[in-house]
Each structure stands twice: as structure tokens, then as C-alpha cells.
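Could you help me review a protein record that somebody else here produced? Here is the record exactly as it was handed to me:
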Amino acid sequence: MRIDILTILPDLLQGPFSDSILKRAQEKGLAEIHIHNIRDYSTNKHKQVDDYQYGGGAGMVMSIEPIAALIEHLQSERKYDEIIYMTPDGEILEQALSNRLSLVDNIMILCGHYKGVDERIREHYITREVSIGSYVLSGGELAAAVLTDSIIRLLPGVLNDETSALTDSFQDNLLSPPVYTRPPEYNGWKVPEVLLSGDFGKIEKWREEQALERTKQRRPDLLNGE
């Protein structure tokens, strides 16, 4: 899988992709992450990528020319399954979307700034708009990192235990059950006896019950199909 991220702050994205699971995924050749500076495609001598909005109003708007030039340059090199714009008014990122995106080959992600991008970019280039929640960030970079992480960790071979991603919260519309590790007792707080029993049938039943109960308490909307 290849993910190309378009941004005016490329340094902001170096950290999330240079450590831990995402770093290993790239080292294994399972994923490629390429960060592109939109300013490199500006024809303005000051590399300006924003301008005042037509009709007046507070805030600047990202200009169409450098973004379009970068998108078209990348499209000339390969076909993209999705060109995604990170925006607060996009569809909310949920596990099902990450699952679908993990099955494609090439994704482009555009990070917005200021009051957003010229609407013509959204109308003529963007295939999907995604939000990581009902709030506003200073830019789309952190949101793009979240989306990228949620996709790449699902690729076969990325996680050491390939069943791990399949048992995450939300994969079956349930939250994950509680988990424990050694020691079996600390400060008088004990691990549930069933987990120490060695009876995997009982353990699996306990986990299913706990997952259902936790979902009822914390995210009943998942059970109601909302």
C-alpha cells in the first residue's frame, strides 16, 4: 500500500511515521508513506499557498493552483483508489471505513488549513472527505496521521500477532473486554479467576460477556446500530 500526504507542514508529520508500528510497516515493505509539500508547487515567489476569500470574511483560503498541480503530478504517476480530504465536515472515521481503505493500493490525503481549501478542489479532485471527530484542529496533519495509522495497522504482517487487529474494539460493533497481565495479584487487586483457569472455552465466553456489558455501559449506540 502507498499513501501520499499533501501538506504545507511536512515536518509536522515526520514524528508519527518514524517510530513504532508505522516505521516497522515501512521497513518491512508493507506500506509506503510519502509526504509532499504543497508549497513546492506554488508559482508565487514567496511560495504563498493561500489568499483572501471571495465575498469577504475572516480567514484565508488555500489556493487551488498549487494543490491541483500537486494532485495532477501524482496522478500522472499512478492511479489512486481514493483522494481524501481531511475536514471537520466529512464523514466520521469509524473502524468499518479503515477496514475498507486497508484493502486498496493507493491513497492520497490532503491536509487542509486556514478556512479550508478552495471548493473547486473538493468538487473536482476529492473522492472522499473524512473527519476524525466533531471538533476543529489547526490543520489536517494530525487527522491524516490518525487515518493513516488506523489503515496501515490492519495490513497483513504489520502487527506481530495478526489476530490482534481482528479483536480490536469496534471490529464487531463491540468494545474490547478488559485485559490483564502479570502479576496475578497487586495491592490485593486480583485478576479474574477465569483467566487463570486454562479453560479457553470459559475464557472466551467471559470475554464475550464482558465486551457486551462494557459496550452496553459505554457505547450503547453501537448495539442500537446508530
